[in-house]
C-alpha cells in the first residue's frame, strides 16, 4: 500500500437516511479509484460495504464500514454509516473520525427523519457538510422540493453547485454552475460528455451561479467588499469563498447523483479532493485534558481506536486513526489508559472485509490492526512519555431496554461473553446487571436495535435466549 502524506488524505463520513444510497455510492467511489473492477449491488448482496450476514439479511447497513479509494493521488478514507435510526452509533463513530460529512438525500422523499438526526450529529461535531441529492432517476423525484425542504431545515447555507437537467426515469444530465458546463452520461453511466450549457438553461444557470457567488462572498469580508463594489467575483475568488464557507460550516454545497447508475461520482470525487479539508487543515483533536493535538506527521506518535469488529478467521480487528506523528509496523506504543505496552505488529487498510498491508501511516490516516493484548475501543496508544488520552466518542443515550436470559441456565456465562463482544462492536448497546431484579438488562437505541442483537445471538453465536417482559 502506498504511503500518503497528511495533506493527501481526505476522511469522509457518508451519512443520511436509510436507503439514500450511501453504500451504493461507496461502491462507485471504489470502482472509480480502481479498488474494485465491478460494482456490487445491494440487491445482489455484493457490495464491499455491506459485507456482513446481518446486512444481507436486513438489506442495508447495520455497522459502519471502513473503506478507502484513491482519486488523483489523494487517498479518500470512506466511513460509510448505517442510516437506520437504531444504528445511529455507526454514524456517530464515522462522523467523529471524519473531517467532512457527505449527507445523502433521497430526492424522491426529501428530508427524512434520518437526514435530520444525522445532520444534528454532524453539526454537534462541527463537521463541514456537503450534500448529495441522490435518486434523481425516479418517477417521483422532486429535486426542487427536496432543496426547498433542505433550506427550510438547514438554512440558507444550502447552495446549489449543480442541478439536474432532466430528473426522472430518463435522468442523465446535470449542469455544474461553477464550471458552467453540462455533463451528459451514456445509458450505463460509465461515460459522460462535457458540453456548453444549452441556450434554454443559461438563464437558470446564471441565476444559481449568482446566488453561489453571493454566498461565497459572504464567507469572507474582503470578498464581500469586492462583491459589493463590482457585483462579481473572479473564478478563483469564488472558489476560495466557497472553500472558506464549507470549512467554516456555513455553506453546504449540493451536488447531484444517481448512485445506482454511477452518475455524478466523478465530479463529487473531484470536489472532495479540491474543496474538502485534509486532516492538517481540519480542526485538531482534543484530549481529555483539553489539549489540542494537530494532525501533524512530525508530532508525537499517537493513535485512537474508534471501532472494533469481530471478523471471521481474524478475531478482533481494531480500527484506528493516526492522531499525530507517523506510525510504522512493529512499533511499540503504550496504552495510555492501562499503561501497558502494545506492539503494532501489523497495520492494514481495509475495504470491507478485504485487507491490504500498510507499512507506514501518517497523521490523519485511518488503518486497522489485530492482536493487541489489552486495548479496547476508544483507547489511545501513544509513544512512550506521551500521556495523550483522546476524548471518548459521544454516543446518544439509550432509548429502549429489555431484560434477557439464556433459555438453558448453563449458557448464562457464554451469553455474558457474547453480549460483551456485541457491545464492543456497537457501543450503543449498554449492559447492566440489576442486582435488585437479578436480571441482565440490555439498553439500546430501539426495539429493532435489540432484535438485531438477538439475531446475532440466534444466528452467529447460536445460543438460545429470550427477552423477559
Ligand atoms: N433508482 C435509484 N436507486 C438507487 C439510487 N441509489 C441507491 N439506490 C438503490 O436504493 C437502495 C438503497 O441503497 P443503499 O446504497 O443501500 O442505501 P444506504 O444509504 O446505504 O442505506 P442504509 O445502509 O440502510 O443506510 C438500493 O436498492 C440501491 O440500489 C439511485 O440514485 N437511484
Ligand atoms: Mg448502507
**Can you say what the CATH homologous superfamily of the largest domain is?**
P-loop containing nucleotide triphosphate hydrolases
Unreliable spans: none
Helix content: 25-40%
> What is the 3D shape?
globular
Give the CATH level 1 class of the largest domain: Alpha Beta
**Global Rg:** 23 Å
Q: Give the number of helices.
A: 11
- How far the N terminus sits from the C terminus, by CA atoms, comes to 51 Å
Q: What ligand species are in this complex?
A: guanosine-5'-triphosphate, magnesium ion
Number of strands: 27
Strand content: 25-35%
CATH architecture of the largest domain: 3-Layer(aba) Sandwich
Q: Structural class, judged by helices and strands?
A: alpha+beta
Strand line-up across the major sheet: 2-3-1-4-5-11-6
Number of domains: 3
CATH topology of the largest domain: Rossmann fold
Mean pLDDT: 95
Largest β-sheet summary: 7 strands, mixed
Protein model, in words:
- The model has no long low-confidence stretch (mean pLDDT 95).
- The protein starts with 8 loop residues before the first strand and ends with a strand.
- The protein contains eleven helices and 27 strands.
- Helix 6 (199-218) crosses helix 8.
- A hairpin with a 2-residue loop joins strand 19 and strand 20 (354-357).
- The chain is 28% helix and 29% strand.
- The chain has helices at residues 22-32, 53-58, 88-97, 113-124, 143-154, 199-218, 221-230, 235-247, 265-275, 412-425, 447-459; strands at residues 9-16, 65-71, 74-80, 100-106, 129-134, 158-160, 162-164, 173-176, 181-185, 192-195, 252-256, 285-286, 292-293, 302-311, 315-324, 326-328, 331-335, 341-344, 348-351, 354-357, 360-362, 366-370, 380-382, 400-406, 430-434, 439-444, 465-468.
- It has a seven-stranded mixed β-sheet, with helices on both faces. A six-stranded antiparallel β-sheet has the order 18-17-23-14-15-22.
- It has 469 residues and is an alpha+beta fold.
- The chain folds into three domains: 8-281, 3-Layer(aba) Sandwich (Rossmann fold), CATH 3.40.50.300; 288-382, Translation factors (Elongation Factor Tu (Ef-tu), domain 3, Beta Barrel), CATH 2.40.30.10; 400-468, Elongation Factor G (Translational Gtpase), domain 3 (Alpha-Beta Plaits), CATH 3.30.70.870.
- The chain binds guanosine-5'-triphosphate and magnesium ion.
- Magnesium ion is lined by residues 22-23, 49-50, 60-61, 80.
